Amino acid sequence: MSDETLPAGRATTGIPGLDGILAGGLERRRLYLVEGKPGTGKTTFGLAYLLAGLAAGERCLYVALSESGAELRAAAASHGWSLDHPGLVVFEVSPPELADPSLGQSLLHAADLELGEAVSRIFAQIEAHRPTRVVIDGLSEIRLLSQGPLRYRQQLLAMKHRFAHTGVTVLLLNDMTTDDADAAVHSIAHGVVRLEELAPAYGAERRRLRVVKYRGTRFRGGYHDLVLDTGGLRVFPRLVAADQEGRQLGTGAGSRALHQQVPSGLPGLDNLLGGGLQRGTNTLLMGPSGAGKSVIALHYALAATAAGGAAVIYVFDEEISLVVARAAGMGLDLAGPMASGRLRLESVDAAELSPGEFAHRVRDEVELRGVDTVVVDSLNGFQAAMPDEHFLLLHVHELLTYLNRRNVLTLVTLAQHGLVGEMRSPVDFTYISDTIVLLRYFEAQGRVRRAMSVIKKRIGRHEDTIREYRIGLSGVQVGEPMTGLQGVLRGTPQYLAGGAGGMLLEPGDRTAD
Description:
Number of helices: 14
Shape: elongated
Number of strands: 25
Radius of gyration: 30 Å
Distance between the termini: 96 Å
Helix content: 25-40%
């Protein structure tokens, strides 16, 4: 095949998200290995690769050694794809009893041939159809025909040299039926991509992808979440916050000043926070269940939309309809901003959504829709998607750092264990939070009340006081700093001389004790 007939540049894989990991795609005229256990998506990978070539006007060849042409067509049809294309040839290698002349394909009976003749027939197809992309599925059959590791490696080396002479870009699919990775192919292949499937104790299976090697290319290493769904494979590249260095004023919230102060619209809360929160920072709203963390986050989201911004709220623990109804009961109108597109509420099923896919959704909202305020409600729900605490912290740290560098105001809620008295957090997120607002229940004058305080704020000043707040029909009402009480955050305060100033009084309350 002459060089003039070969496309220049790199070959796209046809899989969303993967080309970025591979620094632009696959270098042409090279041999690559895609390996994974059965069911991880190797066949879908190979089909997507060939269909991307067809879309670019290239000729393609699929060599099927491990499944019949009918099975291959059925797999393609499950994704809404058709293999009936003049530029695609499916060359099936099958035993005689599976031959079906109605398929209209070339059939090679592997049981009747030696390995050398089988390989010669494959290259005869390449010479006849002159493809630029070839997929050979699967290597296990070639290994069996080789009848030994030495001959197997010799045959792979010979095939590699012949492929290089023809100038095609080849994917070898390996089902990893042996216990260990196929070292012979690893050393010969120009690049290796591994697909894995994990089965959590609860929820759907999780898939991930890792580029094991790619000679001469600086690819993005590590594991990347992978989804196999109708329509093919989707890869969600691991979020690396360092990629956003120096881009704080880019797209998304870039039209706003860096660290611009954002008020909540609640005078008492804004005073407590020294005027409000800052863009490019994240805030942890921490307290027991029912303390009002979500309501306070809603106030900030609505304040952002009222100021002309855009906000998204990821709801892990409630139905969207319940959030809207609860907000309406407190006089907070979510329907208007949602109808205008300035506010989006997304329900997240932690059992079905991987952390990588969630981070991808957040990134799309910021970079494509221009969202400048993000609410994650709650981190407890996010933790359910990542049972391993250590890696959960890394995921959250990268996500929050990314949002900070995009000049986004981020609010996350965390429900602590307990109601009154000592509280325990399921995971310690305090060290990665820029601002921490602590919410507590306390008992006073025969009622269960709520108090808030700011215990950390990296940018700007804040009060060191404790303020009572009340959630009612008009939303959140925050009182003046509480004086004359101690032990409020422990839940059982004691009155000091001079009374309890700053408490929100109701009929029947005593003004002093």
